[in-house]
Amino acid sequence: MSAGMIILGIIVGIFTLLIIITIHELGHFIVAKISKAYVYEFSIGFGPKIFSIKTKETWVTFRAIPLGGYCSIASDKVEPPKGRENEIVPDERKLDYIARWKKMFFILAGPFINLLLAIFLFSIIFAAVQHKKNDMTFFGSIYDQEKVAAKAIKDAEGNINYVGQEFVIWGFKLTSKERNDENPIFDNICKNKDQSNCENSINYKENDKAVNYKKTVYNFIDNLKKIEDNDTDVKIEFSYKEVNKYHGYAISEIKYTNKFSIEKGETVGISPPTRLYENAGAAYGAGWIEAFDSSVTFLKAIGNLFIGNFGGLAGPVGVAKQTAQVLNSAEDYFLFAAAISANLFIFNLLFFPPLDGYRLIENFLEMILKRELSLKYKIIANTIGFVVFLLLIIIVTVKDIIG
């Protein structure tokens, strides 16, 4: 990837994060207003002020560092913003005196609006295009038309120029000059024997439902390795069925290709399929599922940190690279933005200072204890949290650069 595209990715990535985080803060702002809290400022960005839009109560301020934002709410514990020291704020409108159950809604509003944004984007885009690209949990494959799998199926069908994902591989067999049909390198087609005795099957020939791409591709990855250096004139043949493109149920009997040459280390030429939806309603519903799936995937990536696996997370450099990769497609870009919003939903609910999830627990404890936790404790907890997050960002950024 060129340096120019990475720089563009950084710019667009920052802009995307700014919008998503601003929407997050808007959730806090709306609930604060509903709770009748006195909101001094709704800030877009951090750092030095560029300009402000001043209303009777709340000032909307644009700041120089576009990496977040915040709501400034009146409190006895925090000094008013510069220039607003003389404003008289009734106690009932200060954060300190608002009912704790209202504070819980205020805390949850930011993550919740991120979830709503993710659901909205995923659902609208899926409903518009009625598909989901690169879905390893869907059946079939996208075929490289110049590779052996597509060539073999074209040859077997005889009257097609393009092999679509409705042609699904059920199994394959490897032979060589040294290891013939009676003693193959690998065989899970099992033409002439009971498939229960077959090697590591992709799918039983009696089955009418196609298996997902993930099972198929890992079967190839695991078993193409069985071609040895001393095997010569290696051939591969496939069994396959034609299936309904939406549901994956077979609409043909099992078919077999002729043998085609394949080299050691060569792939068969398949990549993840595109999940197709029958109508906009089904696609819209899938958008809801995708929003929650993205959140769960991110939560698993967080869990993997505890076993030293940082592969599922991206830092600023990783986000820039990912952003650059989706700039050529509006569909891909908005799906990427939806995934970021879903990730921020779950990220902000983590029980770790200074995130919203920790603030929720802190507020709940204070509700039970009927007193505030000490200011000293809060400062220490938030300082430790900030340092840990800074270290995590550094580690993930280094991983993105060298990876």
Short structural description:
This protein has nine helices and eleven strands.
Structure description:
This is Inner membrane zinc metalloprotease. One of its GO terms (biological process) is proteolysis. With 403 residues, the protein is of the alpha+beta class. It is built from 9 helices and 11 strands. Among the domains are: 140 residues, no CATH class; 135 residues, no CATH class. The strands form 4 sheets. Strands 5, 6, 7, 8 and 9 form a 5-stranded antiparallel β-sheet that branches. The protein is elongated and about 90 Å long. 30% of the residues are buried.
Share in β-strands: 15-25%
Structure classification: alpha+beta
Radius of gyration: 28 Å
N→C terminal distance: 13 Å
Please report the total strand number as a whole number.
11
Question: What's the tally of helices?
Answer: 9
What summary fits the major beta sheet?
5 strands, antiparallel
Shape descriptor reads elongated
Return the string of H and E elements: HEEHEEHEEHEEEEEHHHHH
List the helices and strands and how they pair.
Blueprint: H1 3-34, E1 39-54, E2 59-73, H2 100-129, E3 131-132, E4 142-143, H3 148-157, E5 167-175, E6 186-187, H4 213-223, E7 235-242, E8 255-256, E9 260-261, E10 270-271, E11 275-276, H5 280-304, H6 316-325, H7 330-348, H8 356-369, H9 375-402
Antiparallel strand pairs: 1-2, 3-11, 4-10, 5-6, 5-7, 7-8, 7-9
